[in-house]
């Protein structure tokens, strides 16, 4: 059932899963309040995954200026927090907003217009603009024109993503049809791959649409989980969590109605992540290479997939691979230091 106001504008839900982002969450909320969409038709759900900073007090400052609800849980991970936030949504469409990111003013209105144009569209996204800590633009995502400004079958889109070894449309660019997203059970163990999981899971059920203009801002800073530089021990633990999350997503793909192609190529992606982890530890050996080779042969990758996923690199002994990396880095350094050629 649609939740609409007198002007026929559907209610939307913006979920903000957060953990110790009091420094940025005000900007995230403010960006929702600045939308050119009726404020009465936006609900904000902040789901706090056990923050020990002053996140709660920051959020409480907005309780009289918008429809915002705050929930707190003991630290159980972003995937669990996201699942709980989704169950609390009343909107027709659910927007994800990471607590350290923010929206441009027409994010919601343009996204809703796409959803309303075709009931078979279950996912709408756009490119993201990356900014630094003070808001200066670093870069913008470049999404292939082949997928822009048109409805695309979700399974076909996943085939394209996997064939090219790319992925767009998750994180703070992500919005989904509530009636579909609420039916999806998110494994708490999906952990570090929650954004990827949400994209795969919803695309199984309908069409996707990518808006050409950037509508979401991704803030890159020293505390981003994806760019966090930590001690060796913490970094190893993070990589182990990543491998475990990847395994859970592969299991989900196997147990649901995803095409054989999607499962096979994602299995290659997962095998690569495991090998890359061993390489980072310096423990990859001949036995690992042989086991990897057997797995890959069974998955029957095409020549394009072999190239896109650098399978030959994964088959190299560690000393040879490190030697090639050194030579590549040395060559680049030499090229960077060459004097300009004058005419």
Short description:
By secondary structure, the protein is α/β, with parallel strands linked by helices. It has helices spanning 22-33, 55-60, 78-87, 107-117, 154-164, 178-181, 194-203, 232-255, 260-281, 286-299, 303-308, 311-314, 318-336, and strands at 12-18, 42-48, 67-72, 93-96, 102-103, 121-131, 137-140, 152-153, 175-177, 207-219.
Helix-strand blueprint:
Blueprint: E1 12-18, H1 22-33, E2 42-48, H2 55-60, E3 67-72, H3 78-87, E4 93-96, E5 102-103, H4 107-117, E6 121-131, E7 137-140, E8 152-153, H5 154-164, E9 175-177, H6 178-181, H7 194-203, E10 207-219, H8 232-255, H9 260-281, H10 286-299, H11 303-308, H12 311-314, H13 318-336
Describe it for me?
Pfam families: Glycos_transf_2 (PF00535). Residues 13-127 form the Glycosyltransferase 2-like domain. The structure is a single chain. By secondary structure, this protein is of the alpha/beta class. The chain has two domains: 12-219, Alpha-Beta Complex (Spore Coat Polysaccharide Biosynthesis Protein SpsA, Chain A), CATH 3.90.550.10; 232-326. It has 13 helices and ten strands. The chain has helices at 22-33, 55-60, 78-87, 107-117, 154-164, 178-181, 194-203, 232-255, 260-281, 286-299, 303-308, 311-314, 318-336; strands spanning 12-18, 42-48, 67-72, 93-96, 102-103, 121-131, 137-140, 152-153, 175-177, 207-219. Strands 1, 2, 3, 4, 5, 6, 7, 8, 9 and 10 form a ten-stranded mixed sheet that branches. Strand 2, helix 2 (55-60) and strand 3 form a beta-alpha-beta unit. The longest helix is centred in the last third of the chain and has 24 residues, at 232-255. The model has no long low-confidence stretch (mean pLDDT 91).
